[in-house]
Each structure stands twice: as C-alpha cells, then as structure tokens.
Design brief:
This protein has helices spanning 22-25, 29-33, 38-49, 60-66, 93-101, and strands at 54-56, 75-77. It is mostly helical and 103 residues long. Strands 1-2 form a two-stranded parallel sheet. Helix 4 links the parallel strand 1 (54-56) and strand 2. The longest helix is centred in the middle third of the chain and has 12 residues, at 38-49.
C-alpha cells in the first residue's frame, strides 16, 4: 500500500440522520443524496478487502455496519492488541496515539 486513497464516496442512507454534525464533518443531506447506494458501496469495499489484511481500531463495528465478514487472520485491530495498551489500560485511539506516537 502506497498511501493512495482507495475509496472516497458518499453513501445514500435508508433512514433519517439525527445529526449531521455539519460543523465537524461538513457533510450535508445533499452529499448523501448524491452518493452511491449502500449495496454498491458495500460491494466496492468487499472487493477492496478480499484477501487483504485490514488494520483499524475497533473495526468490528465497521464490519457490522457494512454487513461484511473478514477472516480473523486478516484483521489487525489496534484496540485488541495487548502490546498497544495504554499504561492506564485505556484502549481509546486518542490515548494510544498520544502514548505511542506522542501526538
């Protein structure tokens, strides 16, 4: 992987969005309405992940939302890695980044 963006798209949603948090995300209803269908986005993600190692933080939720399953031997979840635990046993990404990267 060379750092290139693999997928960058908005996805249409079936239900109402309670709070777009526009001040944080910049995402509006118009962005989602112009996006691709959930099924199409899910299929694109499935193709991208097929046979590849996926690295993320607490990524089980992401797989549930996408209704996808990745073989466990192809998942590297920083939240579950004992070597990355914060001294106070926090598993929050912010705490891990600050402790291990000083950011």
């Amino acid at each position: 992987y060379d750092g290139s963006v693999l997928l960058d798209t908005f996805v249409q949603v079936d239900g109402p969005v309670a709070d777009f948090r526009i001040h944080v995300t910049g995402i509006t209803r118009a962005n989602l309405d112009a996006g691709v269908s959930f099924d199409r986005a899910r299929e694109e993600v499935r193709k991208l992940l097929a046979g590849r190692v996926v690295v993320g933080h607490s990524i089980a939720h992401d797989f549930r939302v996408l209704r996808l399953a990745q073989p466990l031997d192809l998942i590297r979840d920083t939240q579950a890695c004992p070597l990355l635990r914060h001294p106070d046993n926090s598993r929050a990404l912010r705490a891990l980044v600050q402790h291990h990267l000083g950011v």
